[in-house]
Amino acid sequence: MNSDMILTNALLVLPDSVVPGTLVLRGDRIVEIQPGRSHAPGAIDLDGDHLIPGIVDVHTDNLERQVQPRATARWPSRSAMLAHDSQTAAAGVTTVLDALCLGDLGFDTGRTQTFKDGLADLDSLTHTGLLKSDHFLHLRCELPASDMPQLVDLAADHPLVRMVSLMDHSPGVGQYRDLERYRTMRVRQAQMNLAQVDQRIAELLDQRARLREPQRRWLLDRVAHRHLPLASHDDDNEDDIIRNAADGITISEFPVTRDAALAAKRIGVQVIAGAPNIVRGGSHSGNVAVSDLMHDGAVDVLASDYVPPAMVEAAWLAAGQGHATLPAAIAMITGTAARMAGFTDRGWIQAGLRADLVQIRPFEGHAVVRKVWRAGERIA
Fold this sequence. Notes:
globular; alpha/beta; single chain; 8-stranded parallel β-sheet
């Protein structure tokens, strides 16, 4: 029989309060929440630090950054996956949805290999006990990409899939609705001249006109039997939010305008926002500031997007800036995120749930992750 582990002298961040107390863990579960400090032999003193549930990240592209640490340097996929896993665990993320892109729009050709390699690596590693965090899949489906359907067929029935998002990264749309900004970015990143970029833009817009709508309907039909959470991506207007909701897409992921986010909240669509946007003080691509959406009450869940440590820092900043109480801000990266992805066994500090926990010490406005447990086992 597993002996109890006692974590004491902590500020427990519960669903609606922060209280000094003690947790008793047995095996992989929380079995008791006690007020005050425990004097039991062997109790682990957390030095008065905060203790929050393990973080649930519903969208991270961090694997892509490990696969390609520089523009011309591709890293071996298995090494990249293990590095990504270590980084998520160190950031307090105990459950992660690896957001892999399905579909090539001509500027990020390596993403298809990243998807296929990532799928193979998760199949190989998931049951070995070598991964620190729990890894699942978030399929990011590029609607106008000609190869999207065949890639979806490789993963649509995979047991690790927990979310599907419908994306359109065509020039002049959503995140890239500023066409001049898009041109400048592609000339800089793609090692192409302006004429070549303009030619590719014309090709992509023609492709979008032909493929986006039939492939959107195909995708919705293809994944319907899984009853997965469906998200739209980079919404910029109310009409699209309403249309998506009518088709069962009940999450708006990274809306790029305030109007889109507010429209989502009006009709009961949940909103995912990027934690790095809060930490940086604004969008890296010129879109709406998440702190403004937080002020409007138009954010349900924060995701790391491309920086895993941004999760806890963004929640702490949001609470410090008065956009939410600390329990409410922490829920955006734990309990609410867990429920969004269909998990009912984690996300809160509550008896009977998994002992996924993160010890945090605030320091000069930062939230420093000191220790991390997943299912009662120390992983960082």
